[in-house]
């Protein structure tokens, strides 16, 4: 069997179909027409002499043998991307393209404070940002699609190297007419668990809230769930319930301050640690450490945003 008919682009098409389980959505993600993508997938299947995907009326399924091919394709594409990492390792510090993922409950509230100072410090840095769920971003780092991610610790899923950044307190957000809005600080045991709005499945903020208030799982309130932090904030403003919000989201989101009150909980120990994660053996570890140092310095210099503590 010759490799002459197989390209890395073919493998990227293969991975896109496996991820989206749809030829149409995979073609959109790869910015090609569906007939082009379908033809290349069929070419790969003929070359390998196996059916990777089962075409069903309601979508696409990965066959049992196809799953092995997809897993190997991920490794091949990830190693190919390392060619660019190796080439970039000898460049000036934080120069060129750096692909950074940020979890959705952190990106909109932290990144705006970082962009201008980072451009001033590293004028030749081309920072490509990607936002998503923790597990999704971690998988993209593992497979070489991202260089590093900003996420809350501990990280579920693949084992990545962790560089701690800072600790961020959670505060209790309540409607302005809620009894707890009239107190300066809320005791941990006074948080009304039965009214606690959770983030939807996939958000690590949901897991953090349940780690502190596991009894919330016994409350049958499927209506108390939000897909984003801003939807959650709006639900609180509408009087639907209360929730834990990260401190950075409170400092940035002033739009509904006349309808939502934020109160510190106890001694501030209800919090999350934020860190940079990268693949073990990543050839641009120097750049990741420089980015970590820059983020910590920028936060220390900012008067408009505060975190509980920077972490060593």
UniProtKB/TrEMBL annotation:
<keyword id="KW-0238">DNA-binding</keyword>
<dbReference type="GO" id="GO:0003700">
    <property type="term" value="F:DNA-binding transcription factor activity"/>
</dbReference>
<dbReference type="InterPro" id="IPR036390">
    <property type="entry name" value="WH_DNA-bd_sf"/>
</dbReference>
<feature type="domain" description="HTH lysR-type">
    <location>
        <begin position="6"/>
        <end position="63"/>
    </location>
</feature>
<dbReference type="GO" id="GO:0032993">
    <property type="term" value="C:protein-DNA complex"/>
</dbReference>
<keyword id="KW-0804">Transcription</keyword>
<dbReference type="InterPro" id="IPR005119">
    <property type="entry name" value="LysR_subst-bd"/>
</dbReference>
<dbReference type="GO" id="GO:0003677">
    <property type="term" value="F:DNA binding"/>
</dbReference>
<dbReference type="InterPro" id="IPR036388">
    <property type="entry name" value="WH-like_DNA-bd_sf"/>
</dbReference>
<dbReference type="Pfam" id="PF03466">
    <property type="entry name" value="LysR_substrate"/>
</dbReference>
<dbReference type="Pfam" id="PF00126">
    <property type="entry name" value="HTH_1"/>
</dbReference>
<keyword id="KW-0805">Transcription regulation</keyword>
<dbReference type="InterPro" id="IPR000847">
    <property type="entry name" value="LysR_HTH_N"/>
</dbReference>
<protein>
    <submittedName>
        <fullName>LysR family transcriptional regulator, hydrogen peroxide-inducible genes activator</fullName>
    </submittedName>
</protein>
<comment type="similarity">
    <text>Belongs to the LysR transcriptional regulatory family.</text>
</comment>
<keyword id="KW-0010">Activator</keyword>
